[in-house]
Amino acid sequence: MDVQGSAGDGMDQLILSSDPEHPANHICTLCRGFYAFGWVTGTGGGVSIKDGAHIFIAPSGVQKELMQPRDIFVMEHSTRTYLRKPPVLKPSACTPLFLAAFDRGAGSCIHTHSQWAVLVTLLVERDALAAGEAVATSCFEIEQIEQIKGMPKGRGKEGMLGYFDRLRVPIIENTAHEEDLTHSLEAAMEQYPDTYAVLVRRHGVYVWGDSVQKAKTQAESLDYIFRLAVEMRRLDLPWTQ
Description:
single chain, 10 strands, 20% strand
């Protein structure tokens, strides 16, 4: 990814706005909320928003609850060129994965280190091993839970999933470096074209939506479902009928 502009060379205009819905402001607000949820603890996780030709991305290695608009990176989507790059901060290691979502029409992509997401991947892994099935091709599945209605039917399809529909979220294996997840994430997107999320085993989850509002709603719905799934397993209740 090329670098063209740096903070302070006139490109700060891209992140300066009094509008709370401006992507640079909105990302900071979301990160504070996600920190309270326990989704971006210890500088983990990330948020990105596409606005026209530009992509706004939270940096790596910063305390997300303290982030300010001046910390935001801005990239031109078509060229993968940074138009604004804060000189003392590192670009998000999630960027290639965010781009995979944007290349498929997303308006926002969120990455969290939710404990419930991690636990669900471990439970699915244990189930696969016990059944003698391949862990690498495992998928989280659940049905007949009201909150499933918070998830869309799929890209290009109208409406949301229903109570009797089965929600499927693919799981990919973790890697030592975040960017190395890109190929697996893209493969999962191709294998499950209707999904709006991919779990990363022992790591967290990537969730995207047509807009930042939809991505946030879907991330919240999934986290509710993941937590419920963990509690259901504790009570020996099945996820599917």
